[in-house]
């Protein structure tokens, strides 16, 4: 499943299991990709891969990706992230209760700016800005081996809910961009390793593009967001109640109708 020098740990706690969610942290060469959530700290630090790494590259600032930054720093691991991520990092966030309950509150750490690719021990990781899920979202591309560490870019072909900050137009652009890299493997933070990335990315793109088209058609007839969501996605589910409305089908329709430029431009970071 894993190429040589790539390993992973699937961080699952009782609380995350109740939400049917876990987080994968990957080690590629000397680097970790993300830190996982604070509630899974013991599991992360007990994993041999975390002891074999001396650096960590952060994909974006969500608490399930940066929760153990402080613990890794105390181990001597150097944390780095692109400037767009650093601009969004908040070590004292006012997280909704369900997010604190599920993932825990991140512990502060010093994160150095990453201005370009990193090269070591025969591995090269290129940060690529892939906004949509969030304005600060990045994936890491290993071009020689055609690997992409995709964080929250993919997750599933159909994710029928969204948070208010998301932008489907930017997500579509980012998915296309990663598909054009022709990866042989995708390493998703929530789905795990994916060995048929072209088909998975295409399936997600097809679903989102159809959703955007139908949502815009109904909006053009004067339909309001909640009515469109109910027609295209069905009634809101338990997740909307649990998250106090932060994750909802109506939010996904809002994200589908949003100006595609509102979530920040996608950029490569090509020089260090």
Automatic annotation (TrEMBL):
GO terms for biological process: antibiotic catabolic process. This is MBL fold metallo-hydrolase. SMART domains: Lactamase_B. Residues 22-190 form the Metallo-beta-lactamase domain. Belongs to the metallo-beta-lactamase superfamily. Class-B beta-lactamase family. InterPro entries: Metallo-B-lactamas, NDM-1-like, RibonucZ/Hydroxyglut_hydro. Transmembrane segments: none annotated. It comes from the Bacteria.
């Amino acid at each position: 499943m894993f190429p040589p020098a790539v390993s992973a740990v699937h961080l699952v706690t009782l609380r995350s299991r109740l939400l049917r969610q876990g987080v994968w942290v990957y080690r590629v060469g000397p680097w970790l990709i993300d830190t996982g959530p604070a509630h899974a700290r013991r599991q992360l630090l007990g994993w041999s891969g975390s002891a074999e790494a001396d650096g960590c590259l952060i994909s974006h600032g969500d608490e399930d990706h940066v929760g153990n930054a402080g613990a890794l720093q105390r181990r001597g691991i150097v944390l780095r992230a692109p400037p767009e991520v650093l601009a969004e990092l908040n070590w004292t966030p006012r997280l909704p209760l369900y997010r604190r309950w599920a993932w825990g509150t991140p512990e502060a750490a010093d994160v150095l700016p990453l201005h370009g690719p990193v090269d070591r021990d025969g591995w090269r990781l290129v940060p690529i800005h892939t906004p949509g899920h969030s304005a600060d979202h990045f994936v890491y591309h290993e071009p020689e081996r055609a690997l992409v560490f995709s964080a929250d870019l993919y997750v599933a072909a159909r994710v029928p809910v969204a948070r208010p900050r998301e932008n489907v137009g930017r997500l579509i652009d980012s998915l296309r961009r990663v598909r054009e890299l022709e990866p042989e493997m995708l390493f998703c933070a929530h789905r795990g390793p994916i060995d048929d990335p072209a088909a998975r990315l295409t399936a997600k793109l097809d679903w989102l593009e159809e959703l955007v088209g139908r949502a815009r058609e109904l909006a053009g007839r004067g339909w309001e967001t909640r009515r469109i969501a109910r027609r295209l996605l069905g009634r809101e589910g338990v997740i909307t109640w649990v998250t106090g409305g932060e994750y909802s089908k109506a939010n996904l329709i809002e994200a589908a109708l949003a100006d595609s430029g509102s979530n920040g431009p996608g950029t490569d970071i090509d020089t260090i």
